[in-house]
Amino acid sequence: MTESLFTTNNLWILMSAALVFIMHLGFATLEAGFVQKKNTINILFKNCMIVCIGLLTYYAMGFNLMYPGGETAGGFIGFAGFGLTMPEGAAGAMEYADGNYTYWTDFIFQAMFAATCATIVSGAVAERMKLNVFLVFATLFVAISYPITGMWKWGGGWLDELGFYDFAGSTLVHSVGGWGALAAVILLGPRLGKYTDDGKIKPIPGHNIPLAAIGVFLLWFGWFGFNGGSVLSADAVGVSLVFVTTCLAAAAGAVGAFVASYIMFKSHDLSMVLNGILAGLVGITAGADLMSPGEAIIIGFIAGVIIPFSVVFFDKRKLDDPVGATSVHLVCGIWGTLAVGLFGANAGIPQLISQLIGIAAIGAFTFAFSFGSLYLLKVAVGLRVTKEQEIKGLDVSEHEMSAYQDIEQSNYALAVE
Amino acid sequence: MTESLFTTNNLWILMSAALVFIMHLGFATLEAGFVQKKNTINILFKNCMIVCIGLLTYYAMGFNLMYPGGETAGGFIGFAGFGLTMPEGAAGAMEYADGNYTYWTDFIFQAMFAATCATIVSGAVAERMKLNVFLVFATLFVAISYPITGMWKWGGGWLDELGFYDFAGSTLVHSVGGWGALAAVILLGPRLGKYTDDGKIKPIPGHNIPLAAIGVFLLWFGWFGFNGGSVLSADAVGVSLVFVTTCLAAAAGAVGAFVASYIMFKSHDLSMVLNGILAGLVGITAGADLMSPGEAIIIGFIAGVIIPFSVVFFDKRKLDDPVGATSVHLVCGIWGTLAVGLFGANAGIPQLISQLIGIAAIGAFTFAFSFGSLYLLKVAVGLRVTKEQEIKGLDVSEHEMSAYQDIEQSNYALAVE
Amino acid sequence: MTESLFTTNNLWILMSAALVFIMHLGFATLEAGFVQKKNTINILFKNCMIVCIGLLTYYAMGFNLMYPGGETAGGFIGFAGFGLTMPEGAAGAMEYADGNYTYWTDFIFQAMFAATCATIVSGAVAERMKLNVFLVFATLFVAISYPITGMWKWGGGWLDELGFYDFAGSTLVHSVGGWGALAAVILLGPRLGKYTDDGKIKPIPGHNIPLAAIGVFLLWFGWFGFNGGSVLSADAVGVSLVFVTTCLAAAAGAVGAFVASYIMFKSHDLSMVLNGILAGLVGITAGADLMSPGEAIIIGFIAGVIIPFSVVFFDKRKLDDPVGATSVHLVCGIWGTLAVGLFGANAGIPQLISQLIGIAAIGAFTFAFSFGSLYLLKVAVGLRVTKEQEIKGLDVSEHEMSAYQDIEQSNYALAVE
User: ipTM for the complex?
Assistant: First the structure.
């Protein structure tokens, strides 16, 4: 390894960290666009705070829980201590991570990933969950739950030993976020007015679809770093193949969702296409480095087709998820993880079995952790704002402000004078 | 070529592909901002689908039509077959493209370019064209028309032999999109209410100018990859000069449009300044690697000055283009291509003649292809929505949804209870 | 230095320039979101023009004023002539800047910085300043004032000799912008309706908080280049440490502002959290390369805590700053510069004294320059729009257009027919 190649590899992982960072803006605008106007400040507040809490807790303990190095309890849990503890020689940088990047680079890239799973939850619980309670849950989720299951694979734990494969986190990030979302949605119940007394579904359309569209494009943009950076070097063939499979899967996801939703609903549903793009991206994430372009298209297309079915499935069960996070991240995260056993370089029954074990184990742990901690919070302080607060909107009831001002304050003030 | 330099070169082209991707978000927000509120979903839907269709068709046939390699019919057309057909040795990567980047990198960078020309059309036909018909045309345009004329120059075809110069696509991308837009605008006719019976022009202002401004900044940001990546390596002097000329031309374009529109209309017209920036960017694109900073400023300034004149020119002829795509991409694309013969390293009569031939040939082919295919579609199924649909807006009539929700659904639902 | 390492270093500074460019979109959306609806076009117009004017004036004279090379008058002022004057051998690139980047790269990276300080002013003077007068001031500020004080440190002038430390510009960029903003706010006076006759403060809420939130995320994103690029090479350890300290300070700034404003106002104030993130970023900028992660958290947290106190402080003095630019950029710029003497590798009394001298000298010069030139403009032509114009809003009175259209023009036109 020359200094020059080391510098390039490191630079790419840093650029990837910046790209994954911009995914947080993508999530913020996507979720803000899909909620009602009266809850816009609330969702933006959550998304701002989650990135920040995620980075700080990952510094405080997450990183050392996810990458404990040395001894772990049977590959299930380990902890290298609070704060950052740079291994000897890592400051010299080329002694760390096969000389591909520095200890600081490793931390910041992983830290940017960590917060994404909590952000996924924030969309699903939007418009009805108490802000402070959500922030407590998100902190626990990102500080404890995500790093533990993350270690099982990326920290060299028992699933890694088993042969479970998850390139950039269809399971470790997306379905983890999705399981947390599902637990929260079950415990919270649906938004007022979403389901009528006689069981009908009343769609609650998002208040600003251009914001949601901006979110999807920014998420795709960030995914260049999410998947491309997961090569863990700037290896030319590796990163470029991942760019191709990622983009083709996203494109095929849009087409899949378009076709399926057009057949189902006879309309050009932009929400479905937007979620179809995300579905394709989540779907390819587990095996983006293993697939041919053609296989990526198939995986993405199927992920896109899944979306309208999954949205209807959850809606029928009164699992009210304002942004479709469970469909995109949980269902397509599972699909993408399974696809590694069905397509591409690793396809085969043994891989498929490993994938199923990984999906089940991480799903069980995450769902149990989320359901348990949310249940305790529900009993202790309640998860949900009051009916009055929900009707007024969380912006006014939790933040005493509105996202948009139509009345011109100074005109008003002057008129009063 | 060392492995290290190869890795850096490849990385830059990949980063450029990501930057060109974000231009699609730029186009989406620019066009959404400049249309009426009632057609917002429709334009976002188009822009989402075009990126995806563009990537998939470029995979299916566009790339092999644009870069057929080997034998072509006199440099006019060639085809290396459907799907991606990696040349022997290219997987080893350094045997491909002079060791600057891999086959996958080449594909994804070029694929990101391909969809931009169809996106240019979508702005011009906004607010009145049938969605499905547009998608059919866009597919044909990006799968067939763009790659064929692209091959003439970048695929080593007859214009390349002739000495025609187009660094990053003032003609091959922007004026191609502009010719398609012009053909469509002619066949579609203006929006209802744009021109009164006695021939007066009634401006139809865009519904959300902050969205349009976001679009212009994102397009500029993406242009770092569009022009910078067209160096086809990370060559330090080459890329940095292109960054300088690109930015100075954009800045001068804003000033040119500002001054010209201030003199013409006596107001500070933000739309003109925004389009002036784009004009400067389109104008410098053909020769961004050949110009000194001072020459870049002159080219950009003139491009900016052109904008208000061009907008008025088209408007007087009742060629109704809601976002000014023909002025920005067609007129300034031609200007930028000519400028290569007037300024910079290649200036001179022989170059100017080559430029004129290239502009005319590509313009004639693209306009004929677009006009012909749109005319057939018009005869077969009609290009335009009904008058009722246009008045109601395409969001409701084609998508059954609205871009913005002011009424709070759950409040409403609860009030009804 | 190998060609390969040189190419990578150069590429990173170019990427950083692109990232700093996107900060201008961040400022544009942040400021647009925080002003009233009726002044949206005006603030976007300013922000578009400032980037362009900044680039062109930096080309025309700023760069050679900031980096005069050779002889200067006692390290206080020097000028290498109008336009760009490439030093001999610099075209060969590796003879320039220790072989880390080319002359063009140096120019474009520095040019992107230059415009940011004028943009900071634009937010503070929003909603009441005459557009043309602002553009004249901004041109003087960015062409003359910023490069002169910039030279004192980054151009190797007297503050550099003295040992003053400012890694990426807490003082040279942010507090310079802040001093300009303060001078303008004093001379302009508050917006109509902001303070009642009996001295009460009437908050004028921003019209579109999602836009403001987008701005903050984009600024953070751009800061990867602002601070990361200030390493002036792609050095792996250097850039990665700066990424870590920058992000942790931003995160801690959000938490600091959250906690302090929650205690002070008992509400979850999103504006405070957004400005807290920016405060953390500004605070770490002077010493991002000197701090440990833990120290970065402390610096960022304190910067965040400062925000609500500072906002209240200025408001009580009727210094009306619609976007909080003085609190974020001036106060936290000073804090960050002082922090270099209090924390990290350079901490100590001698450093603290140098920091104080630098803060005072640059502050005095910039404030005097700004106050003086604005005072002359005030006497000559007036700074402020008329009361009628301010009440109507600058969009209508200066631009004859509105940022948003709720009425559908074509419907209206058709109804009239």
Answer: 0.96
